[in-house]
Amino acid sequence: xxxxxxxxxxxxxxxxxxxxxxxxxxxxxxxxxxxxxxxxxxxxxxxxxxxxxxxxxxxxxxxxxxxxxxxxxxxxxxxxxxxxxxxxxxxxxxxxxxxxxxxxxxxxxxxxxxxxxxxxxxxxxxxxxxxxxxxxxxxxxxxxxxxxxxxxxxxxxxxxxxxxxxxxxxxxxxxxxxxxxxxxxxxxxxxxxxxxxxxxxxxxxxxxxxxxxxxxxxxxxxxxxxxxxxxxxxxxxxxxxxxxxxxxxxxxxxxxxxxxxxxxxxxxxxxxxxxxxxxxxxxxxxxxxxxxxxxxxxx
Length: 299
Hints:
The chain is mainly α. Helices cover 82% and strands 0% of the residues.
């Protein structure tokens, strides 16, 4: 027994440090490959959450106002989160072939004009419909405005974020469930991803309305929009480009058309109404195309 233990000690001492390091690296890589959604989510969350807190957290804790410039810096960290997560985890899980596939889906532009119309114009049509209806039925404060730079910021947001959300997360979830469940999964993960930025940027002004606002906008509304995006994606040869455009249109026109609303209850009402309308449209799509969200599907 003594000799056996001595041999084990000798083997341990004589082990090549590089081999030990390689073995540890292989274990990490294998663990990521077994749990890609977990690691994608960790990276996608931690980059913007830590970055945003470092930028605006001290001001929030000290009672200072979070400025527009702070918001811009936070936005940049948010762009980095899903794009870095999507590219890095894709490479770890599927190697160079996975990256080739990802980038090829970002270049699939040969789709019917009708799908381009849906991707680009459905979001602003729904936004305008809700705001106009609220301005007529409730108050003129809901009348749409127009902030041109918002469209540009939205397109940039859609381009970078969808590298991760639709480029990696959706097909990974879709491999183990149907399109509807995968869309809801992406919508919920994407929704919670906004939490840190929401707390830092909106909790001060919204007060007790922050939770209903956040749930309406980023959980309920976001999930409905993701169902509509998956519907477009599934019917355009899995084109990530189409969803980058649709995400850009949705975010861009939200920034561009949303009026400056002073009262928290008014702002919450606007986003709650939009979320309900988005789910009505998503429900029509689900009824027509089924849970596969694909043309010709019946179930």
